[in-house]
Amino acid sequence: MVWSNTRDKQLQERAHQVIPNGMYGHESVAMMPDDFPQFFAKAEGTRLWDIDGNEYIDYMCAYGPNLMGYARPEVQSAIVEQLARGDTMTGPGPGMVELAETMVSMVRHADWAMFCKNGGDATSIAMVAARAYRGKKKILVARGSYHGSAPWNTPGMSGIVPEDRAHIIYFDYNDLDSLTKAAKFAGDDVAGVFATPFKHETFSDQSHVDADYARGVRKLCDELDALLIVDDVRAGFRLTRGCTWETVDVDPDIACFGKVIGNGQPISAVLGANKARKAVESMFVTGSFWFSAVPMAAALATMKLVRETDYLKQLVTIGTLLRTSLDAQASQYGFSIRQTGPVQMPQILFDDDPDWRFGYRWCQLAMKHGAYLSPYHNMFINAAMTEADVAKTLEATGAAFADLQANRTTLEPQAKLGVLKRLLAS
Q1: Which of 308, 329, 345 is the last residue of a domain?
Q2: Which of 308, 329, 358 is the last residue of a domain?
Q3: What is 208-235 written as a DSSP string?
Q4: I need a surface site. Which of 114, 118, 190, 224 has the fewest CB within 10 A?
Q5: How far apart are CA 12 and CA 48, in angstroms?
Q6: Same structural domain, 56 and 164
Q7: What is the pLDDT along the chain (426 residues), one digit of tens a residue?
Q8: Please, are residues 260 and 64 in contact by the beta-carbon 8 Å criterion?
Q9: Does 277 lie in the same domain as 341?
Q10: What torsion do the CA atoms of 295, 297, 300, 304 make, to the nearest 10 degrees?
Q11: What are the residues facing 45 on neighbouring strands?
């Protein structure tokens, strides 16, 4: 099939008439390379089809929620069965209790669970819990880390006033001295410390958490009687079957999960220790759709797959194969790339590419050959991916590298670089 985007362009034009900017949020293609499709018609397993019928191996996985493969049969069956009984009702179904029991049994630090819809819901609940715990106000957050798009944490500052961030104090990730200084600045008013499982900001290299740093954060929170919150929304259950900081033998007081737990259904979770139970019981947080039964059924089916399959081994195997193959391919065509972070969540950036001309062109060409990659955001491996998918991906990336090699001296700087710099600066 010859790649085309006629229908997508037409729909984007219609969208601009009735939707601000034509699309909003992280799934807008405004910052993606030119011609990236905005609208999709179908997803199954590892594959995604846009509304023009173009087929892609999807390495964004809906920006994370696809863990087991799109439309995984076991999850789809649970969805259909629960939908026939009821979804959003006057109260939750019994699956809510079963899901809470299941997740508490799977995550080492957890004694209780609450459910909501998005990662931002979960992190905001955790923030409120930290303040309710001892009546303190200050929240320590790593500079540049992403915890959602509420006024207290959104990376876009339009409409945000200083009061929204009045009690947020920033420190440098993986830097215990920076964190200690932030805590000293807050005095005796530290309510909680937010931590991501590893450094996974967009537009930059990823880096693993240092075990001594993680232990230092835990020690500091204990000394201050503040809550340690791990934001596992992006990485939870992709790196391990529990909280990601269990891999460095550190337990938080609260962890936030989302993205994958319903394999695409809208559900997130806050899992906490008894230490924070009274604080959480004193709060009022809710949402009309937080108690819907279908996403909880999907989550139960997904957690069963997490417990009983070798999906983690598959993620690592495929992620490692992709990483080593791309390193060799880039070298073959005379390019140097940086692949950082866990292999299950690849981040790929070009060396010697200050104006992004290589990274953007490479992703654009790979997309038109059937591999959907991002030039600036970490990507995701899902458990449905196979060696055949990697081989097909390498055909697409090989064609992209060949084009770069042939045109490397004539490529123009990325036109969106100014917007990128403004985002980075903010």
Answers
A1: 308
A2: 308
A3: PPPHHHHHHHHHHHHHHT-EEEEE-TTT
A4: 118
A5: 18
A6: no
A7: 689 999 999 999 999 999 999 999 999 999 999 999 999 999 999 999 999 999 999 999 999 999 999 999 999 999 999 999 999 999 999 999 999 999 999 999 999 999 999 999 999 999 999 999 999 999 999 999 999 999 999 998 899 999 999 999 999 999 999 999 999 999 999 999 999 999 999 889 999 999 999 999 999 999 999 999 999 999 999 999 999 999 999 999 999 999 999 999 999 999 999 999 999 999 999 999 999 999 999 999 999 999 999 999 999 999 999 999 999 999 999 999 999 999 999 999 999 999 999 999 999 999 999 999 999 999 999 999 999 999 999 999 999 999 999 999 999 888 876 666 565 555
A8: yes
A9: no
A10: -120
A11: 70
Which CATH number belongs to the domain containing residue 47 in this structure?
3.90.1150.10
Question: Is the pTM of the predicted complex or chain greater than 0.85?
Answer: yes
Residues 58, 153: one domain?
no
| CATH code (residue 91) | 3.40.640.10
Q: Which domain holds residue 389?
A: 6-63+310-425
